[in-house]
Amino acid sequence: MSIDLIVALSAAGAGYLIGSLPFGYLVAKANGVDIFSVGSKNPGATNVKRCVGKKAGNIVFLLDAIKGFVATGWPILLAGESFHYGLIGLVFAVLGHSFSLFTRFRGGKGVATMLGGVVALMYIAALVGVLVWLAVFYSSRYVSLASICLAISLPITNLVVGSPATLTWVSLALGLLVVVRHKENIVRLLKGEENKFAKK
Fold first, then answer.
1. A Gene Ontology MF term for this entry (predicted)?
2. Judging by beta carbons within 10 Å of its beta carbon (0-12, 13-18, 19+), is residue 159 exposed, middle or buried?
3. DSSP the chain
């Protein structure tokens, strides 16, 4: 078995396990809440913030982003200049977060984990994505719409700045996964039934 294959399989396996760490579920449980039974029943930072509190939600977002960063970053450090192993780690981290091994393959929508990995690999796309998220959220107060726009912005930014084709295609695939994971939110947005975050 070649070293390249070993590194690729390690990046995939470790990425999935790291991504599977159910921080939303654990933080909520530490506060006496079963996050799968309240609100949208999603273990992502948004539902945790709504059902447990702002501090808990922010902690979950940070931890989920760190999952993506670590899963993406360590293969790059190990393999030197090649970013392809980092991409493998990122893809499997997002899959692990979305379909967690530890919560019967239930999981979040992958936005924070994807963003953490994108910071490690495509910092310009990450910066543009954050700016897009902030602009959409503060103009609409819809977290879901802001997250969808962030996901869509990643492959567009990579295409515009001339990133390697592999980065563009992977960011497109991950963006589509995030959009699909928001399908129920999209239906509610179209019906005008999606919940907004109230101004504080």
1. acyl-phosphate glycerol-3-phosphate acyltransferase activity
2. middle
3. --HHHHHHHHHHHHHHHHHH--HHHHHHHHTT--GGGSTTS--SHHHHHHHT-HHHHHHHHHHHHHHHHHHHHHHHHHHTT--HHHHHHHHHHHHHHHS-GGGTT----SHHHHHHHHHHH-HHHHHHHHHHHHHHHHHH--HHHHHHHHHHHHHHHHHHHT--HHHHHHHHHHHHHHHHHTHHHHHHHHHT-PPPPPP-
Task: Domain ranges for the chain, please list them.
Answer: 3-191
Mean pLDDT over 192-197 rounds to: 89
Per-residue pLDDT reduced to its tens digit, 41-51: 999 999 999 99
**Does the pLDDT of residue 161 top 60, yes or no?**
yes
pTM for the full predicted model: 0.92
